[in-house]
TrEMBL record:
Originating organism: Prauserella cavernicola
SUPFAM superfamilies hit by this protein: NAD(P)-binding Rossmann-fold domains (SSF51735)
Pfam families, per database record: Epimerase (PF01370)
Gene3D superfamilies: NAD(P)-binding Rossmann-like Domain
Annotated protein name in UniProt: NAD-dependent epimerase/dehydratase family protein
UniProt entry keywords in alphabetical sequence: Carbohydrate metabolism, NADP
NADP as UniProt keyword: yes
Top-level division of the source organism's lineage: Bacteria
UniProt domain NAD-dependent epimerase/dehydratase: residue ranges: 31-270
PANTHER family: ADP-L-GLYCERO-D-MANNO-HEPTOSE-6-EPIMERASE (PTHR43103:SF3), NUCLEOSIDE-DIPHOSPHATE-SUGAR EPIMERASE (PTHR43103)
Length: 355
């Protein structure tokens, strides 16, 4: 399919801002990305922008499309918790990628039980997507790909392949599981072709603005550059599967390319490699040291913070073999190389701020 050469037009209304690349054809599939301005949404946009598709990027903040796009791109800035904006965002879309999550406090996953605002965002928006599609009376069910988490499985998530029982330990994980189940129910009903990708611990590698990353790697990287010790809420033996956001973005592209193989199920996405928190923090300290030319900052064990959760003491390591066999995806980015690129990005950011 040919690319999308075209001009750029700008439209502004009271509630949305749009940047549209006007293409020669409207026959290409339309993909809506909800939460496009976040870390994963930005990485996914880079991947999809190289393809002959139409992209509708929707977020709380305006997205910045990459240069030299092959795709036709429309950018919307909208509050998706209002039904009007949500229904309009998914209208006529062949595929919807749902990356929206409630962000508050130290991280997206730290949701108190009974938090109605978080529940409205994490669960309610999935129901809104389903009901908007139901009202549109589609002749063919659109693909809806949802970002879940390996932590949804709770204690059974150690070396999880997604086939064991789900015993979520936190409000965030219960929200994710409820949203996933709603999507699977809508798939059985024939309304959508729902796919949930349960993602391992994400981190960026400097491909996009480092400010988008509020995860543990970015936080500890900034502490190390500031000369502060890297603190653990345990003895450091807790293990995580560290998944580069660029690999996660490619997993969503693979899911959109193989919807009929994947629809109606959840799939575990990760590297399958267990990294202890102590080893991760020690490596971050050494990588930063190579950029600052100063001794590595110490890695210390400290009492848990008040906002710590049960999942902070549980190993979460993905087993992605099922997904790899279903659509051919494999992770490409190494942890060490990615950490070095992240450090370079943080160093550049700090240099710019000082200048």
């Amino acid at each position: 399919m040919p690319g999308f050469p075209g001009r750029i037009a700008h439209l502004r209304t009271r509630e949305t801002t749009r940047r549209i690349s006007v293409a020669d054809s409207t026959a290409a599939p339309l993909i809506t990305v909800l939460g496009a301005s976040g870390m994963l949404g930005t990485a996914l946009t880079r991947e999809l922008a190289t393809q002959p598709v139409r992209l509708r990027l929707v977020g709380r903040r305006p997205s910045t499309p990459p240069p030299d796009c092959r795709a036709e791109i429309e950018v919307r800035e909208a509050d998706l918790t209002t039904g009007e904006h949500l229904a309009d965002a998914v209208a006529d879309a062949d595929s919807v990628v749902h990356l929206v999550a409630h962000i508050a406090g130290p991280g997206t996953w730290r949701v108190a039980d009974g938090d109605r605002v978080a529940e409205r965002v994490n669960v309610g928006l999935v129901h809104d997507v389903i009901e908007a599609i139901r009202a549109q009376r589609r002749s063919r069910p659109p693909v809806v790909a949802f970002a879940g988490s390996v932590s949804q499985a709770g204690h059974s998530a150690a070396s999880a392949d997604g086939t064991g029982p789900d015993l979520p330990l936190t409000g965030y994980d219960r929200h994710k599981l409820e949203a996933e189940q709603a999507l699977e129910s809508a798939t059985r009903e024939g309304l959508v072709r729902g796919i949930t990708l349960r993602l391992a611990t994400l981190f960026s590698q400097g491909s996009d603005p480092i400010a988008l990353d509020s995860g543990v790697v970015a936080v500890m990287m900034r502490r190390a550059f500031a000369g502060k010790p890297l603190t653990m809420w345990h003895d450091g033996t807790v293990k995580r599967d560290m998944l580069c956001v660029d690999d996660a973005a490619r997993a969503f592209v693979a899911a959109l390319e193989h919807p009929d193989r994947l629809a109606g199920e959840h799939w575990t996405i990760g590297t399958g490699q267990a990294t202890s928190i102590f080893d991760l923090f020690s490596t971050i300290a050494k990588v930063v040291s190579s950029h600052t030319k100063l001794p590595p900052v110490p890695v210390l064990s400290v009492p848990p913070a008040e906002h710590s959760l049960a999942t902070d003491l549980v190993d979460f390591v993905a087993t992605p073999a099922r997904f790899e066999q279903a659509c051919g995806w494999t992770p490409r980015e190494s942890l060490i190389g990615s950490l070095d690129r992240t450090a370079a990005a943080v160093a550049a950011e700090l240099g710019d701020s000082r200048r």
